[in-house]
Structures are given as structure tokens and as C-alpha cells.
Design goal:
alpha+beta, 1 helix
């Protein structure tokens, strides 16, 4: 006579079941242990943060600064011929000032010689001599002035 062997099912207590494993019922009605995916709570809806004031200021200034740079470039391109002419005029004015500083004393010196020699007489030069003496650092000074 044939007797099928009795297979004894292992007994597991609910406290011995590790996390992520649970009893499930299969479609054919058999209950077994299986891995289960824990249901995660739905993700929280992100709350929109207000835009910081520095970001608003930067966003408003960026096109303004860019536009100002562009306007400056266009203005310089229009002004370039005038700027070149002004720099040449400035160099010319500097050369004129240097020439005047050199030429005016020469002309004055030549003019005095011409006037002095045509006057008929010789013009004498006045010499002034000062002799000053003092005793000590804060002593009283005495002096004489001689005209020759």
C-alpha cells in the first residue's frame, strides 16, 4: 500500500517575519510569504518659494546694464572721428604751449637788447649787496644794504 509522505509546513510567528515580507494569497488560493513593496506616501506637493529681492533686482538690472553698454558702444562708434580730431587738437595745443614757453622769453630778451642798444647810451645794471649778521639761532640780526 502506498502512503504519501506528509510534508509538514514550517510554522512562523508574526513577530518573526522580517520587514518587507508578508503573507499573500496567490490566485489559486494558496497563502504564502512573499516580498511586498511598502506603499510610500504620496510625494508632498512642493510649495513655491517667493523670488528673493536680490534676484528681482539682478533680473531687472541685467538688461539695463547690457543696453547701456550697447548704447555706449554705438555712441563711441559715432563719436570716434570727433574724438580723434579732439586728441589731435589737444596735441597741437600742447605743442603750442611748449613753443610759447620757449619762444616768449627769447623774444623778450631780444627785444630788450634792441631797445637798449638803440637808445644811444649804455644802460647800467644796479647791484644790491646785503650784509647781515646775527648771533645765535634766535638772536637779533643787523645788516646793511649797499646800492652800487
Amino acid at each position: 500500500m502506498y502512503r504519501p509522505a506528509v510534508v509538514q509546513q514550517p510554522v512562523i510567528l508574526p513577530g518573526e517575519i522580517p520587514p518587507g515580507i508578508d503573507w499573500v494569497t496567490l490566485p489559486n488560493g494558496v497563502r504564502t510569504l512573499a516580498y511586498t513593496h511598502p506603499t510610500a506616501p504620496p510625494p508632498a506637493v512642493p510649495v513655491s518659494q517667493p523670488v528673493p529681492a536680490w534676484a528681482k533686482t539682478t533680473a531687472l538690472l541685467a538688461p539695463t546694464v547690457g543696453g547701456g553698454i550697447a548704447a555706449a558702444g554705438i555712441g563711441l562708434s559715432y563719436a570716434a572721428p570727433g574724438l580723434i580730431a579732439m586728441s589731435q587738437a589737444l596735441w597741437s595745443a600742447a605743442a603750442l604751449v611748449i613753443a610759447a614757453v620757449i619762444a616768449v622769453p627769447l623774444l623778450l630778451r631780444t627785444g630788450r637788447r634792441a631797445v637798449g642798444s638803440s637808445g644811444g647810451g649804455t644802460r647800467t645794471t644796479t647791484h644790491i649787496t646785503q650784509n647781515i649778521t646775527a648771533t645765535g639761532l634766535f638772536g637779533r640780526a643787523n645788516g646793511t644794504i649797499n646800492h652800487h
